[in-house]
Amino acid sequence: MGSSKFNLNLSAFKLFERLCKNAQEYSVLVEKTKCGATLVDAGLEAKGGFFAGEIITEICLGGLGQVKIFPVQYEDVVLPSVYVQTDHPALSTLGSQFAGWQVKSEGYRAIGSGPARAIALKPKKLYRKLNYSEQADKAVLVLETEKKPPEEAVLMIAEKCNVKPENVYLVVFSTTSLAGSTQVSGRIVETGLHKLERLGLDPLIVTSAWGYAPIIPLHPKSGEAMGRTNDAILYGGTANYIVNYDDDEELENIVKQAPSTSSKMMQEAKELAQKNPRFLDIFKEAGFDFYKIDPNIFAPAIVSINNLKTGKTFRAGKFDILVMKESLGL
To answer: Is the Cα torsion angle 97, 99, 100, 103 positive or negative in sign?
Structure first.
């Protein structure tokens, strides 16, 4: 595959080092596993928080994106919101941040994202499209999980990345934590670009991107937390892209299909419920299996694309504050 002046794992490792060196400031716990890997608990036993959520999102982006948190008013509700910007959208989001590695071992499951995917080529088809792969002596992976990975899982990650176990660097958290909730909302640009890629847009022509999504208040139950964090993007997130595209009519048609509510599964669920359904309802129908859900659902509420070749901007979708309020328990 193609070469690049970037090394996502090495860029992310610098942020990982900062996280470890300032563990108290970030409210995380750092430990070594039996096989020598470094594990940062950012939301299991550790408190985690906004600071941890910011830097973890930047780690997920392979060090090629900036993340900030600021308040946004959604009608009569004010929520902290994650703002993400990148000048390397395809590589930082699809090549690193995308949750494309389902880490499994006996009795354990986690959703893996971050630059280690570019070494292990998870999934291979996506990296073929990006014309990208990576070799590094350090593998950095972020795990969304309810418990720490067993040694078997850590050793499997090392093997897939062709690195020594002591050169595996993991960040773990639950979506019930503030750091976890923050980094899910921080996927706003990634979810939009992944949807656009599925609709036929070449992600490599996207020159820059930015977006923001609210951080929904926490819930102690993992299923409810998963539902809330996805509602934040599906109904309260906006993503914006700059591209070089030859055909405005074709581009406009792609944008019309890009928002979350354009998904066939979402439209069918809306017909049954007579309103936009909460993600938790869809999640239950899928047997709480993240990978059995129509992937076209995972997209921002609003998608906008500016075409540099013509100067035109196309926008589709809208916020659904009612569903967000239901997620808030209001």
So the answer is: positive
Confidence of residue 4 (pLDDT cuts 50, 70, 90): low
Q: Where are the domains of the chain?
A: 8-328
Mean pLDDT across the stretch 99-125? 96
The answer to whether the beta carbons of residues 306 and 258 sit under 8 Å apart is no
Please give the DSSP secondary-structure letter assigned to residue 80.
E
pTM above 0.90, yes or no: yes
pLDDT tens digit string along 203-252? 999 999 999 999 988 888 888 888 899 999 999 999 999 999 999 999 99
Q: How far apart are CA 56 and CA 192, in angstroms?
A: 20
Confidence of residue 2 (pLDDT cuts 50, 70, 90): very low
Q: How many CB atoms lie within 10 A of CB 18?
A: 14
CA 128 to each of CA 94, 121, 124: distance values in angstroms, whole numbers, following the listed order = 12, 9, 6
Q: Work out the burial of residue 199: count CB atoms within 10 Å of its CB; fewer than 13 is exposed, 13-18 middle, 19 or more buried.
A: middle
d(CA 168, CA 161): 9
Q: Is 229 helix (H, G, I), strand (E, B) or coil?
A: helix
The SS3 call for residue 143 is strand
Contacts of 272 (CB under 8 A, 6+ apart): none
Question: Residue type at 38?
Answer: T
What is the structure's pLDDT at 121?
97
Task: Report the first-to-last Cα separation within the chain, whole angstroms.
Answer: 50
Q: Distance (Å, rounded) from C-alpha 215 to C-alpha 19? A: 21
pLDDT given at position 277: 85
Helix (H) or strand (E) holding 59: helix 50-60
Quickly count: other Cβ atoms within 10 Å of residue 123's Cβ.
14
What is the CATH architecture of 8-328?
2-Layer Sandwich (3.30)
Residue percentage of the chain with pLDDT more than 90: 80
Q: Where are the alpha helices (DSSP H) in 132-276?
A: 151-161, 178-185, 188-198, 222-236, 248-256, 264-273
The residue-averaged pLDDT of 44-63 equals 97
How large is the average pLDDT for residues 1-12? 81
Element (H, E) at 303: strand 302-307
